[in-house]
Design goal:
By secondary structure, this protein is an alpha/beta fold. It is built from 13 helices and 7 strands. β4, α4 and β5 form a beta-alpha-beta unit. α8 crosses α11 and α8 crosses α12. It is elongated and about 75 Å long.
């Protein structure tokens, strides 16, 4: 099968390679000419035979919107656009409606697998009309891991990205739990081999997982993680998960706490904790830690 692939970063580039190894023809476009097979979106579309399928693998938001707008003008009836980035599921219906006016199908695909997907395959959660999904099923079959699992047609347009959003929210919680366990082990005077303890959990325990395996790899390289700052960004899906939980009145204490922990990681000093310290001092005379004279306070 032929596929146009827009965006050849860490995941997009590996996806192109995995598809080619499976015998598919992939024409990739990227603004980096060193990796691109086409000089423009127009050139990419021109290299594909109708009915065409184009996979968009660019950052969510404006980049995705602009790419889909351009493809709408270049593709025609019977073609299909797949959004494999981490778009918000509410954007999918807008994209689908915009494309449908020209008879172009739309499939949203939540993709998990990261940089390991080339070798291990990518877990795929897709949303869209059944006939549109069927048109590109050979692509999904080549990208997914071997075996029966690793792919689901989750529902109509938006279902794929909603499922991926929840997946990423769970990921936040799992990572936070492992991280807190690591910190407590490090703080203990009893445990002398923290990396060894964590590695022992990877076989035969109820908390073994691929994320735990990755923590072991990180500790192999840097046993105390001394080379890394405890500053953690979030790419949006955790926030969206918590927002949807509020919209549906679903309690998500673990995922919410994991998201807020990331916010806290970006503060050198907490305004909220300053207020708490000040209040304790006011009502109980409790001591506070003053900023030393001449010391420049770091921005919170």
């Amino acid at each position: 099968m032929e596929l146009g692939l827009v965006g050849l970063g860490k995941m997009g580039g590996n996806m192109r390679e995995r598809l080619r190894r499976a015998g598919h023809t992939v024409v990739g476009f990227d603004f980096n000419p060193d990796v691109s097979d086409a000089t423009s979106l127009e050139d990419l579309v021109a290299q594909l035979d109708a009915p065409r399928a184009v996979w968009v693998m660019v950052p969510a938001g404006d980049a995705t919107q602009q790419t889909i707008n351009q493809l709408r003008e270049l593709l025609g009836e019977g073609d299909v656009v797949i959004d494999g980035g981490n778009s918000r599921y509410t954007d999918d219906k807008l994209h689908a409606g915009h494309l449908a006016a020209k008879g172009i199908g739309f499939v949203d695909a939540g993709v998990s697998g990261g940089v390991w997907g080339l070798a291990n395959g990518y877990a795929l959660m897709v949303g869209g009309e059944r006939e549109d999904v069927a048109k590109v099923q050979p692509i999904f079959d080549a990208l997914k891991p071997e075996g029966e699992s690793g792919f689901v047609h989750a529902g109509p347009v938006g279902a794929g990205h909603f499922a991926k959003m929840v997946h990423n929210g769970i990921e936040y919680g799992l990572m936070q739990a492992y991280a807190e366990g690591f910190e407590l082990l490090e703080a203990s005077e009893v445990v002398q081999d923290v990396p060894g303890v964590i590695k022992s959990w990877t076989h035969g325990t109820v908390i073994r997982s691929w994320l735990l395996d990755l923590l072991v790899l990180a500790l192999d390289e840097d046993p105390k993680l001394d080379q890394i700052r405890g500053f953690v960004e979030d790419s949006g899906e955790g926030r969206w998960t918590v927002e949807e939980a509020i919209n549906h009145a679903v309690p998500l204490p673990v995922i919410s706490a994991a998201l807020f922990a990331r916010f806290g990681s970006r503060q050198d000093d907490s305004p909220a904790m300053k207020a708490v310290a000040a209040l304790r001092n006011q009502f109980g005379g409790h001591a506070v830690t003053k900023i030393a004279k001449g010391e420049v306070e770091k921005p919170a």
